[in-house]
Amino acid sequence: HEAGLRVSVHINTAVDFRHAVRAGADELAHLPGRDGPERIAPEDAAEAARRGVVVVTTASLALKKKETDAAAFEAIRSAQVLNVKLLKESGVRLAVGSDLYDDTSVREVDYLRELGVFSPHELLAIWTGTGATSVFPGRKICRLDDGYEASFLVLAGNPLEDWANTKRIRSSFKDGKPLRASPSGAKDQPSTN
Q1: Which residues lie across from 177 on neighbouring strands?
Q2: pTM of this prediction?
């Protein structure tokens, strides 16, 4: 903070959550309880909301436990549902991230969707807005408005009507310029058109 930077803290437990919030972290990576059920205290959620802390859920990391211990996974998942509801009701800003170098946020958002806590509209806002504005707080992003960066995706249909449309990307734009897929399909490149 003294250097003018935001502080993100990786946490594992509800106690970690409490200490990170009280220490002044701007962002917390993970819900508590990836390896076993943990419950966030309501007063800690309220304090996180008061301080404007962003929580990057990474809840789908618990799927690793499902492969080895289904009963433990169900207990973790039940605690995650209660924690996510508490954070949402407390007004804590949530963001989506994968925390896996070989994955994207798609698995995480699908997992959060399965928890049944968010409406499609809420989930889209969490997925496409909070994370970006938390990482780039000084940039004018995540809105289609005058003066904002024109970086966006064009989908085949409305994801609020059919969630599968989130995976039906028709075109993409970066700073107002259309992108095209590279020959390998690995990354988009600026269009020469």
Answers
A1: 174
A2: 0.86
